[in-house]
Amino acid sequence: MNILKNNFSTLLGAKLLRIQDVSRATGISRTTLTNIYYREAKNIQLKTLMGICDFLQVSLSELIEYHPQNVSN
Questions:
Q1: Cα–Cα distance between 9 and 69 in angstroms, integer?
Q2: What is the rounded distance in angstroms from the CA atom of residue 7 to the CA atom of residue 50?
Q3: Per-residue confidence band for 65, with pLDDT thresholds at 50, 70 and 90
Q4: Cβ atoms of residues 36 and 44 within 8 Å
Q5: Distance (Å, whole) CA 11 – CA 68
Q6: pLDDT above 90 for 72
Q7: Cβ atoms within 10 Å of 45's Cβ, excluding its own
Q8: Prediction pTM value
């Protein structure tokens, strides 16, 4: 099983930021950010992820962690 971990809510909490703060600074809609925050987003555009990373000053791998499944041959 692939494991994808979304750290957006954790990062906002650590920086004492709100979705509205990110939206105002980046121009990303509150709806999009809310979907990411509550882990309901399925297909997030790379441009959106980059905007969030730039604002939070984190790398993409800090925002979204991906751990591939072990594949046995």
A1: 24
A2: 14
A3: very high
A4: yes
A5: 23
A6: no
A7: 11
A8: 0.88
